[in-house]
Amino acid sequence: MKKALLSLSFTIALASIPHLRLEAATGALDIYWVDVEGGAATLIVTPAGESILIDSGNPGGRDPGRIHDVASKVAGLQRIDHLITTHLHTDHYGGAAEISQLMPISSVYDNGIPDQNPDNNPEDRTWLLKIKPYREFKADKRNVIKPGDSIPLKQAAKGLPVSIRCLAAKQDVIPPAANVRLAANPACTDAPTREKDTSDNANSIVMLLEMGDFQFFVAGDLTWNTERQLVCPAILVPQVDVYQVTHHGLDVSNNPLLIRALSPAVSIMSNGTQKGCGAETFSTLKSLPSIQAMYQIHRNLRADSQNNTANEHIANLEARCQANYIKLSLEPSAKTYTVSIPTTGHKRAFTTK
Ligand SMILES: [Zn+2]
């Protein structure tokens, strides 16, 4: 009886802490890729129950609604603790203001909001109006992130620590650790650079999530030459478990030099039915000795249907889709993780490298 009372009061105490999920007691780390039709929205829930949303899809009801549904109904969240906006293109920042109307957003991290169009187009007179909702939505704190910065995360009482660190932002990359002498990367010698990208894609914020041996790399829409800076002249990135395919899988990104250095076991692409899933990106990923499974949010429904992974690894096969999400769940020891598409029943386990 006493025990039952105790556990009841414990449950009430837990429930009274608004953003502490009961599931958090499991010690798992979960990542959700929400279907935002060729935009990006990656939701991370730490073992301590904190939430990190990387990019917020498009404005206009659909994407904020889908993100809020996954956050509240599936992940059991009542707030977004940290929002990271990789860069200021509509498909990445557009949903944030509407999400903030549906659930509070505590801290925002981005490259700062310029007064002019971020794609170096000063003729664009619509920018200030376009960015207004993002600039003005209510958040507890706004932060400009720099390479080397870590987002302050609460840690669960038991279990492995979790960290998420910025590796690059605004075309600046982390310096090598002071105590490490890095060898030159021989792959750089003959690897081509491309014409300078003057769009905000090149400024994308790059983040590395770590828990135990597990590592997840996400780089927004970072383009070829900035990707190269992460691996040339020396490799500044670790070999990771999971690679969020950069820029929806477009070939102006996904420099093979970087992907080969990252050497992921699993790739997850936030593409649309007509966007991303580029031929070069696809062949780079397929050719990796490390790759075990490639996932896509959508089947590429263009004529180049050969640029698709196996149907069982695709969350949405039809254009008029159910907005199925992809979920990754890392077990508390961080030794294994499963990737699933809950609506189709697909589930596959992987061993952390
Ligand atoms: Zn994009």
Describe the structure.
By secondary structure, this protein is of the alpha/beta class. It has one domain (20-351): Metallo-beta-lactamase, Chain A. It is 20% helix and 24% strand. The protein has helices at 2-15, 62-74, 90-93, 96-102, 127-136, 224-229, 256-262, 279-287; strands spanning 29-33, 42-45, 51-54, 80-84, 105-110, 139-144, 162-169, 172-173, 206-211, 214-218, 242-245, 266-269, 293-298, 314-316, 326-330, 336-341, 346-351. A nine-stranded mixed beta sheet has the order 6-5-4-3-2-1-15-16-17, covered by helices on one side. Helix 2 packs across helix 4 (96-102). Zinc ion (ZN) binds next to helix 3.
Can you describe this structure in just a few lines?
The chain is of the alpha/beta class.
